[in-house]
Every structure is written in C-alpha cells, then in structure tokens.
Amino acid sequence: MTDTTQRPALPDRLSVHPGPHHVPAVFEHDIGIRFNGQERFDVEEYCVSEGWIKVPAGKTRDRKGRPLLIQLKGQVEAFYK
Predict the structure, then answer these.
(1) SS3 assignment, position 31
(2) What would the pLDDT profile of 17-44 be if each residue is shown by its tens digit?
(3) Residue 2, in any domain of the structure
C-alpha cells in the first residue's frame, strides 16, 4: 500500500481548535502523539520543542462549551500513522 499524496511536515505546535496553531492540511491524515513513551489519544494541543501537551480535565467545560484543558510536561513526539 503506497501513499501517493504528499503529507505536510508536522508543525512544532499544533492545536485541534481553530486558531493560530491549527493547520487543516495536517488533519487530513491520521496523526498520533507519543507522550513519555506512550501513545495518547486525548491530546487537544501539543508543542514538541517546549515539551508539553494539553488534555481535557475530566468533563469540565469552559464558558464556550469546550473542555477545560490541563497542561502536562514531558517528552512529546508527533508522527503520522
């Protein structure tokens, strides 16, 4: 199985929500985040160079209806699946 479409380079910082760190072309492909050696499936935002990810804090929501996020620090690796 060969992928003929060119994948864009993964950015240093990426966010799921629209804003300055949201890159729609990356989300056309399946990406994964490895945090401290384990793959995480609940990452909303990450920064490889600074070494952090943001994940939802339970079922708590902010006033715009989005999940409240907590920041975890450690080794971050982004990759295409």
Answers:
(1) strand
(2) 888 999 999 999 999 999 999 999 999 9
(3) no
Helix ranges restricted to H, 1-81: none
Domain of 17, in residue numbers: 13-80
| CA-based radius of gyration for the chain | 13
Is the residue at 48 inside a domain?
yes
How many C-beta atoms lie closer than 10 Å to residue 23's C-beta? 14
Q: Is 32 helix (H, G, I), strand (E, B) or coil?
A: strand
Total domains, the chain:
1
pLDDT in tens, 53-72: 999 999 999 998 989 999 99
Structural tokens at position 69: 């996020």
Q: Is residue 5 part of a domain?
A: no
